[in-house]
Amino acid sequence: MEDIINVENPKIWIYNQYGGLIHELYLKSSWNGTFNNCPMPSNDYRFKIEYFNKICSESISESRNFNLKREEERYNISI
């Protein structure tokens, strides 16, 4: 992706493995790995980003896959 200084109006959409929209991101927003306040499981996901490149004066759209990994909770039980 281009140098962030040369990018305007970035928008990101995050999709589950079935193509369902999970979250939309805009400038200065974030995603905490949840959907409807429930943590998403470790799995493959996809994102699409659209932005305007100021250097070449064109709109760019890219899609990539990513893997969300969560550490399993470990419980220590003392008796």
Short description:
With 79 residues, this protein is mainly β.
Provide a descriptive summary of the structure in words:
The protein is an all-beta fold. Helices cover 0% and strands 51% of the residues. The chain has strands spanning 7-15, 21-25, 34-35, 38-39, 43-53, 58-68. The protein has a 4-stranded antiparallel sheet with strand order 2-1-5-6, with no helix packed on it. Strands 3-4 form a two-stranded antiparallel sheet. The model is unreliable at 73-79 (pLDDT under 50).
The helix content is: under 10%
Mean pLDDT: 85
Shape: elongated
Poorly predicted regions are 73-79
The secondary-structure element order is EEEEEE
Q: How many strand segments?
A: 6
Strand order of the largest sheet: 2-1-5-6
Terminal CA distance reads 53 Å
Instruction: Please give the count of helices.
Output: 0
List keywords for this structure.
two-stranded antiparallel ribbon; single chain; mainly beta; 6 strands; 79 residues; 4-stranded antiparallel sheet
Topology of this structure?
Blueprint: E1 7-15, E2 21-25, E3 34-35, E4 38-39, E5 43-53, E6 58-68
Antiparallel strand pairs: 1-2, 1-5, 3-4, 5-6
